[in-house]
Amino acid sequence: xxxxxxxxxxxxxxxxxxxxxxxxxxxxxxxxxxxxxxxxxxxxxxxxxxxxxxxxxxxxxxxxxxxxxxxxxxxxxxxxxxxxxxxxxxxxxxxxxxxxxxxxxxxxxxxxxxxxxxxxxxxxxxxxxxxxxxxxxxxxxxxxxxxxxxxxxxxxxxxxxxxxxxxxxxxxxxxxxxxxxxxxxxxxxxxxxxxxxxxxxxxxxxxxxxxxxxxxxxxxxxxxxxxxxxxxxxxxxxxxxxxxxxxxxxxxxxxxxxxxxxxxxxxxxxxxxxxxxxxxxxxxxxxxx
Length: 289
What we know:
By secondary structure, the chain is α/β, with parallel strands linked by helices. The chain has a single domain, classed as TIM Barrel, CATH 3.20.20. 41% of the residues lie in helices and 13% in strands. It has 9 helices and 9 strands. The strands form 2 sheets. Strands 1, 2, 3, 7, 8 and 9 form a 6-stranded parallel beta sheet that branches. α5 packs across α6 and α7 runs parallel beside α8. The radius of gyration is 18 Å and the shape is globular. The relative contact order is 0.22. The N terminus is likely disordered.
């Protein structure tokens, strides 16, 4: 396996605790923020993403980080869908952030995989850990292709938009070699399940993302219980950045949508300000830490 040795850093970090922040990140100078990201945004998920964006706007979250898959599972490149591109450009002009999110969001199974690798790539995520074990060269090829695609998108639909500043791997599974490629590509930040990482300055903030798993009734029930617990834990720990990671299938299940709404409202009522990941990065850096 190539470059996947550090995936546990982001996947299996224990829940946050008071005093866990690196380099004094709980400083009052870093405003308490709420970052909501919508993953797996593509032409095939646009309708569900629109529903989720509407839910969030009704709760008072008018900006999110939209994680875009250029060619979702190989079912059609986003640049081939002019309606989707116009929609995405409008969302960006409204303040939503565009974040590259893999390229195909798909990982082919390998012969001779270890039990750990099978669990991570087939149970934790359903064969979608695209950057889990890529070599640096393989990751670089996909990253360069994605950069060129987003440059074409911006030049055609939104010339005033800045270049994307972050890259987030599918399922947050970013192997060590692939991370080197992301940093070399000039991306300023990435995230894992339990971390927000400033790649340019080489530091991490421990902040575990809430995320829901709608694939079965059992997984949905566990998600609801776990996220209620995790939100309370994050709130007590006064984490500077609370993260909600939402996926298009979540929109199909009213209990998940209701909990997302409740937790969002609770975070805002506690004084958290909605922000994109890029804005959170700037606030972290402005805190002088």
